[in-house]
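note to self — DONT lose this again. spent like an hour looking for the file last time. sequence + predicted structure for the chain T wanted, 400 res
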Amino acid sequence: MPETRLIDLTRTVSRLGHGAMTGIDRVELAYLQQFLQGDADVFGLVRSAFGWLLLERTGCQNILKLAQGPSALPKADLLSRIAHRKDRPRAQAETAARQHAMARAGRPGLARLLRRLPARSEYFNIGHANLSANSLGALKTAGLQVTVMIHDTIPLDHPALARPDTVEPFRRKLAAVSAHADRIIHLSHATRATTERHLAALGRVPPGLVAKLGIDRPTPDPATVPEHLDLTSPFFVALGTIEPRKNHALLLDVWDQLCEPRPALFILGNRGWAGADLLHRLDSLPKDGPVKVISGLSDGAVAALLSQATALLAPSLAEGFGLPPAEAASLGTPVVATDLAVTREILGNYAVYLQPSEIYSWKETVVRLANAPPLQPRRATDWNAPTWDEHFKKVLNLAC
């Protein structure tokens, strides 16, 4: 294995100051933490509005501290204010990255910048940023090995579930990976099969390996749960960004058909790309009704709700891995999920699997769980969560 690791931190920097992290954000941070704990040389690469920034270990450590909070972002410098007039956190984040950079280069100067790295270096792209023919080609020109994690190919498999302006850009990203990657990290055998099918159509399938993501058992913090939420009666949780593939509309249909008294449904997540009809339904929910949309919760509050919920409901139409069901299972919370190959691969027999359009089956399951005796104590006895140690032993060829 190469002795020097270069991790692309463009996504992490772009997310600083923007609130709760997504699943992909968490994975990129897990890699940064792992690299900084080891003895290998560690560098970070960030694409800013004006070019490339190269960070050494200390700079990467500072970015990690900012990502983990509560460290304050610096005041935006002039360059960042010019580039990001309408996005103050992004301006501040790029200022922080620039302050910690050991070297900079304009957009055409990436290969030259990377020649500062020691020989036998490996580039890790975890967050899907900078997957372009120019960027990956420059990395290869500079002599780096290129490792890319492909989380899923949902924009190509289900274009109707993706924003229209993301489908072709994603195809171009995958074409660049096909041409330039030395190896690909897949998160499941199911996603590997779909990814390699697309890569084959693009001309080349780089060597790959399957390494399931590690599941860190969330730490509940009941003190941070909003006081107005009633947790004494049965309640269900749906967790994830509000977008078409998460299929929130099915849950709204189910709750419309439930008899009184209806259990509570807490939809936890920020608004992503969602259709006007769904957003109108969510905005029209009565404030004193059983269905509540809650955003901006801390990780501890989300974990507290998840740990006490009657069940997590995950009617997704497509998933690359599915962190919420896995985190729920790690807490011993029952999971009701769409019957997807990737979910079965990750959770096995732990979850109850239903079809994503069978409203009656979802309604029947919700009623049964709401009327069942509570599980005491909660424990995940039927599911062994994959660990980060197992993941990195596969990816980094660490000795067992």
